[in-house]
Amino acid sequence: MIHLEISVSDGRSQYITCKLQNCSDGNRGKPFPGFIIPNSLVVQDEYVFIQVPVGGQSVHYVSYKRNAFYPMKLPKYTLPKDLQIISTDDNQVVAAIQDWHQNDSYNLYMSESRGLFFTLMLESVVSSRGPEGNVMIDLYEVAGIKGVFLSNKVVENQVKTYITYNKGRDWHLLRAPAADLQGNKLDCEQPHCSLHLHLHVSENPYTSGNIVSKDSAPGIIIASGVVGAELTNTNVSIFITGRRWEHLERDLPGGVQHLLPEPRRISGGHPTHAAAN
Question: Which Gene Ontology cellular-component terms appear in the entry (predicted)?
Fold first, then answer.
């Protein structure tokens, strides 16, 4: 089964499904009977997300396990002007929502298994625009360990890095290394001083981003960042964590991707990407 969004008139689209072998008009299904906002269809794991125009506003709907659509229930006083689906792992939806008063940050929310009811996970997460205008949220899911996320949050006009080990229930500042590259002791005590990381991941598979972790090396994170009161672009170093964070070396122009070995690949395996059941 494939999932399609087709344009039917100015500013209106429809969500249809059909079998790959036969997608003629007579063999199309309409899981949602009405019109949807163009470019709002997201099919991810067990969930289908759409946006529906209601009274001049956009209402977000979700379908779980391809059942009926229901409006997503956000906490009271949440007035979203944008919503981005971040993750649908482990039968939970993590969504980034930009509230009406926010410009360069989003709030993170997590749902129960159906993706209907959401609770606040973390406020004021840094956001930016990618090269093609896409929204980039400063949230990084660590590979190899479930429930571990890093995020950059705005706190009193400063950007600070936080980590959670239980999928957002509790967040903590990162403890800085005990010493610098020369072995000199670092005087860095929380909450006034901690380790802050750049969390951008490259969209180009041939170039590296600022942070890397892999399923083949669980518990190992390599990232560029700084020690101090907030995240900056000056005096950047490379840091690695195993049992604790340590300096690795000064920042590298080529990024950090090459510092973790590639896992052994099995011949004949090819990744695929499709919006299908």
Answer: Golgi apparatus; membrane
User: Is the separation of the CB atoms in 13 and 32 below 8 Å?
Assistant: no
Q: What per-residue confidence (pLDDT) applies to 229? A: 96
Which alpha helices (H) appear in the chain, and where do they start and end? none
Strand extents, DSSP E, the chain: 2-9, 12-18, 42-44, 47-54, 57-64, 69-71, 80-87, 94-99, 105-111, 118-129, 135-137, 139-141, 149-155, 158-164, 172-173, 194-197, 211-212, 221-228, 237-241, 245-250
**When comparing pLDDT for 179 and 263, which is higher?**
179
pTM: 0.82
Task: Compute φ and ψ for 27, nearest 5 degrees.
Answer: -110, 15
Contact present, 256 and 222 (Cβ < 8 Å): yes
Rounded to whole angstroms, how far apart are CA atoms 269 and 135? 31
Burial class (CB in 10 A: 0-12, 13-18, 19+), 117: middle
Q: Cβ distance 223 to 256 under 8 Å?
A: yes
Taking only the tens place, the pLDDT of each residue in 188-223 is 999 999 999 999 775 555 455 688 898 888 889 999
